[in-house]
TrEMBL record:
Its cofactor is a metal cation. It catalyses: L-homoserine + NAD(+) = L-aspartate 4-semialdehyde + NADH + H(+); L-homoserine + NADP(+) = L-aspartate 4-semialdehyde + NADPH + H(+). It comes from Microbacterium lacticum. L-homoserine binds at residue 191. Keywords: Amino-acid biosynthesis, Methionine biosynthesis, NADP, Oxidoreductase, Sodium, Threonine biosynthesis. NADPH binds at residue 106. Its EC number is 1.1.1.3. This is Homoserine dehydrogenase.
Length: 441
């Protein structure tokens, strides 16, 4: 049944996502009213330049540069401007004015989420952010609501489409990083300055959000260990392929046991890095700019969420889902779903993580070298699971160097990294080609 009130919806931003949200709010008005149980009136759209061209055909009279005037008096405020300020200030104003807030702003949620959730709690409103992680894919609500009765053990996510596009093409076509990055920029996946994507900053923000929800712990973004993909070249790709893996930039959030600093022994690790994924793992078949989040929960087992991680209209779907929920709550009253930080688990540094690794080395092809390498690994408490040696022959037919690809059993990251330092200083290693974690086996 539809309530006879009408809710005033204010939109901040009409870029790639905001313009599509506005268009859907206007064209699907009746359906949205039916689902929300109340009519949703888009009362205005705040932008910087009211005359700028828009991706969708939207009524000019809705546009304003007076964001604050629009916010005060709104029942639901949708923030799709991006950035920290003035988005943070506007969201705080909206909450303090009695509105529920919907945002897709991962940078803001990852860095100032706790502060905004506290304001929302104090005033009895909600901040929803389904679009902030993996665009169109429902993952925030599944973690917060659907899995609320379960215990999440690990999340492995491909949460950045740009880097997945780059790595996928490097893997499938044998292309070079720079060539594929230029294509990604031309196609609009990567920005002119690709740092946020290729150095893992974007994925780290999303990892912090996912880990906070999954482990009921406020995870600051600077607690996320982050490595980008710029060191992945054709040689590293070939070594991965040869060993039966594909390289993906993964956001890994996992529950760890046995931590002395935690009263229960439980702690978490949150990391973003290029990792080797076995070719038969569901994440290995995530191609192009798609995203996927693989969740392992104690009772539910393995779950995979897959789809478009970006795109204006795709992301608008996630935003509108939040708008409908916010509208229902606004009408029904009662407290919203606040942030759960009850577990407050310590986030361990990367040195305390245990995984399998693949180490690729170029060594002198001389008697005793393999045994020296094996000895250094043994001293460092790193156990060899597999080893493959190939003699490298130069174009002039000469050799003298061998490539060693060593797969390890599970080892402590600190031991592994100390061992790699010793290998580099050993005199028998010409070059450490790559050291990658194996995830998901
Ligand atoms: P755009 O850069 O395309 O659009 C930003 C919009 O905000 C523009 O309309 C701009 O106005 C407006 N704006 C910026 N600053 C101000 C300001 N100070 N006052 C008023 N208006 C302002 O961003 P997107 O649509 O791509 O992204 C929006 C949000 O959604 C971001 O937080 C992003 O991280 C998130 N997101 C985006 C995805 C995507 O695929 N694009 C996917 C998932 C999340 P004007 O047009 O006049 O310059
Ligand atoms: N730059 C992001 C990506 C956009 O490549 O996935 C969505 O957050």
């Amino acid at each position: 049944m539809t309530d006879d009130r009408r809710l005033r919806v204010a939109l901040l931003g009409a870029g790639s996502v905001g313009s599509q949200v506005a268009a859907l709010l206007l064209t699907h008005q009746d359906e949205l009213a039916d689902r929300a149980g109340v009519a949703l009136d888009l009362v205005g759209i705040a932008v910087r330049d009211v005359d700028a061209p828009r991706d969708a055909d939207l009524p000019r009279e809705l546009f304003t540069t007076d964001a604050e005037g629009l916010i005060v008096g709104a029942d639901i405020v949708i923030e799709l401007m991006g950035g920290i300020e003035p988005a943070r200030e506007y969201i705080a104003l909206a909450l303090n004015s009695g509105a529920d807030v919907v945002t897709g702003n991962k940078a803001l949620v990852a860095t100032h989420g706790s502060e905004l959730f506290d304001v929302a709690d104090q005033v009895g409103a909600t901040v929803s952010y389904e679009a902030a992680v993996a665009g169109a894919i429902p993952i925030i609500r599944p973690l917060r609501d659907s899995l609320a009765g379960d215990r999440v053990q690990r999340i492995m996510g491909i949460v950045n489409g740009t880097t997945n596009y780059i790595l996928d093409r490097m893997d499938r076509e044998g292309s070079d990083f720079d060539v594929v990055l230029a294509d990604a920029q031309r196609l609009g996946y990567a920005e002119a300055d690709p740092t946020g994507d290729v150095e893992g900053f974007d994925a780290a923000q999303k990892a912090a959000i996912l880990a906070s929800l999954a482990f009921h712990t406020a995870v600051p973004v600077d607690a996320v260990h982050r490595e980008g993909i710029t060191a992945i070249d054709k040689t590293v790709m070939d070594a991965a392929r040869g060993a039966g893996y594909v390289i993906k930039l993964l956001a890994v959030c996992e529950r760890l046991e046995g931590a002395a600093e935690s009263p229960t022994g439980e702690a978490i690790s949150v990391r973003v890095a290029p990792a080797l994924v076995p070719r038969d793992h569901p994440l290995a078949s995530v191609h192009g700019a798609n995203n996927a989040v693989f969740v392992q929960a104690e009772a539910a087992g393995n779950l995979m969420f897959y789809g478009a991680g970006a795109g204006g209209v795709q992301t608008a779907s996630a935003v509108l889902g939040d708008v409908v929920s916010a509208a229902r709550r606004h009408i029904a009253g009662g407290v919203g779903v606040g942030e759960s930080t009850r577990a407050n688990l310590p986030v361990l540094p990367i040195g305390r993580v245990t995984t399998r690794y693949q180490i690729t080395l170029d060594v002198s092809d001389e008697p005793g070298v393999l045994s020296t390498v094996a000895g250094i690994l043994a001293e460092g408490r790193v156990s060899i699971a597999t080893a493959l040696q190939t003699v490298i022959t130069e174009a002039n037919g000469e050799s003298g160097t061998a490539r060693l690809v060593i797969g390890t059993h599970r080892a402590l990251e600190q031991d592994l990294s100390d061992t790699v330092d010793r290998l580099a200083a050993s005199g028998v290693v010409d070059r450490i080609v790559s050291v990658l974690r194996v995830e998901g086996d």
